[in-house]
Amino acid sequence: MNRDDLKWILRFAGILVLITSFPYFLGFANPDSDWGFSGFVFGVNDGNSYIAKMLSGSYGAWLFKTPYSSMDQRGVIAYLPYLLLGKLASGEAHHLQLLMIFHLFRIFSIPLLIMATYQFVSLFIESTSWRRWTTILVTCGGGLGWLLVLTGNASWQGDLPLDFYSPESFGFLSIYGLPHLILARFLLLTGMVNYLRAAESPHRGWIAGVCFLVLPLIQPLSIVTAFAVIGIHQLIILAFFIKRRSVKEWKPWLMAAMRSGVFALPLVIYLGISFTQDPFLKRWTEQNRILSPHPGHYLFAYGILLIPMIAGIRNRLRLKRISTLLPLSWIIAFPILAYAPHNLQRRLPEGIWVAVALFAAIGFSEWKVGRRVLKSWSSRVVLICSLLSSVLLILGGVRVAMTPEVPVFQPAEEVEAFKKVAEIVEPGSVVLTGFDTGNALPAYAPIFVVIGHGPESAYLELLEPQVEAFYQGMLDKGRVNSLLDDWNVDYVWFGPREKLLGTWHPPVGFGLEMVLESGDYVLYRYLKEAIIP
After folding, report:
1. Are 90 and 138 contacting, i.e. CB atoms less than 8 angstroms apart?
2. Which of 78, 209, 316, 508 gives the lowest tally of CB atoms within 10 Å of its CB?
3. 517 — alpha (psi -120 to 50), left (phi > 0) or beta?
4. Could you tell me if 444 and 419 are in contact, meaning their C-beta atoms sit under 8 angstroms apart?
5. What sign for the dihedral angle of Cα 276, 282, 284, 289?
6. N- to C-terminal Cα distance for the chain?
7. What total number of domains does the chain contain?
8. ∠340-352-383 over CA atoms, to 5°?
9. Which residues pair with 518 in a beta bridge?
């Protein structure tokens, strides 16, 4: 990259930061004192979980233990950025500090991703204008999901369009609010760039190895994508050299792959053993179902680029360049990963949009048409159509940021009660709450809850009906105390959300002592020794 490239990257990053930060600015600046902004305009449940992870880091955690389960946990090396960033917050306005650090993490990660994307596409595209077109498409673009929404088919085949909920299928959602995924794709693309250069410059293989070592610490599933793409690339070039009867020429590429993967392999083995052998992590993995949608959704996602993509692949295959086979390997890996027999299959084809957009740009740039203006306008129309889903996401963020409602906003009285819990409850205590309260409370107080997050609350499908029965007052004293003991409960929370579940009141003999009353919110300490037989 030259100086002009770097200037463009920084300007583009600045524009993206401003656009994607505007809804959050509106949320924080909302003048309604009866509400407190959660800090998120989409995916609030997951957003609260990221802040809860940062909070546990600020209280000294180095290994990840989810606060959304009272099940015994050993801890695992995961979500490291959030644990580390949490250590930067302390003192007053702790929750607000964590939110600001989270969004600064997002803001400073955006230029890194744009730079890595530009570097990757530059390996295959010489024209500066087409490099920029591709970078804009990769980072801001989407598919035709907006068309499904506008025609009243938002839940076609039982799923939303991928544009609106799948960050791995595109890229804009990560930039909009998922900074760890921004960093993960930066590492993935930077690792691929150095892997491709490692056959001629062996030290590049070690740089790729460092990228792929850090990658599973950020997003473990992305390393599966990296290894799958590189593995397919190795098989294709091996077949290429065998056909040319020059297998010796494969050795530098094989060594590049080995250098790229050697550092990460022990960590991948550790994570594989942890998530298949540790009782809690095994259960978390089993109930964390993120399945790929009907194949038709992928056609709506990438169909807008299908014809130029095929043309780009055909044009590049004619050149017989080994490096070009890497993005082709990504596309070959896509259906294998997207529909692999795994409950996290939708996460696996991370970054496929990069390969699709890259070949589409090549197809457009080398399109042989009679008039240049036709080629120019066709690519612009495709780019504009691709940006419409992202525009709808921003407009949706602006709308919810200007309309205080749960869950994007929380009642100010509830926020104040949460802060008081953080002051009086011992860190690491288990608090029984309803599901919705259980999602938000760990973002304010360093505690564990019984339920509060879909994937991370172990045995949620069994526990949630029991928790609801508890608050509905349907359980006798013996059953109540048995459940509180089984769940390792130290405190019981009762607020407006729990009142919606039933008319429970703590009767005498249940071993519950009120320790906090803040408006409509009450917290009881569970005293096992005070239970009356």
Report:
1. no
2. 508
3. beta
4. yes
5. positive
6. 76
7. 2
8. 140
9. 521
What is the distance between the alpha carbons of residues 48 and 445, in angstroms, rounded to a whole number? Answer: 12
pLDDT value at residue 508:
59
403 falls within a domain: no
Question: What six digits make up the tokens of 150?
Answer: 């506008």
Q: Find residue 36's DSSP bridge partners.
A: 410
* Residue 524, amino acid: Y
CA distances from 437 to 96, 165, 380, 407, 527 (A): 19, 24, 46, 10, 22
Contact 20, 71 (CB under 8 A): no
Paired strand residues for 493 = 523
What's the pTM?
Answer: 0.94
Pure H helices in 151-201: 172-177, 179-197
Whether 180 and 187 have beta carbons less than 8 Å apart is answered as no
pLDDT means per 10 residues in the chain (533 residues)?
A: 94 98 97 95 97 97 96 94 96 95 98 98 95 97 93 89 96 97 98 96 97 96 97 94 88 96 96 93 91 94 94 87 90 96 94 97 79 69 95 97 96 97 96 97 98 95 94 83 92 94 71 92 84 48
My answer on whether 347 and 207 are in the same domain is: yes
Q: Whole-angstrom Cα distance, residue 253 to residue 197?
A: 9
Task: Give yes or no for a contact between 451 and 467, defined as CB atoms under 8 angstroms apart.
Answer: yes
Within this chain, do residues 366 and 417 fall inside the same structural domain, yes or no?
Answer: no
- For residue 158 the two structure tokens come to 């039982």
Residue type, 444: Y
| Burial class (CB within 10 angstroms; exposed 0-12, middle 13-18, buried 19+) of 368 | exposed
Check whether residue 387 and residue 474 sit in a common domain: no
**CA 133, CA 166: separation in Å to the nearest integer?**
22
Q: Any idea what the Cα angle at residue 6 is, between residues 4 and 10, rounded to 5°?
A: 120
Q: Are residues 426 and 347 in the same domain?
A: no
- For residue 512, the surrounding DSSP H or E stretch is strand 512-518
Cα 254 from Cα 238, distance rounded (Å): 9
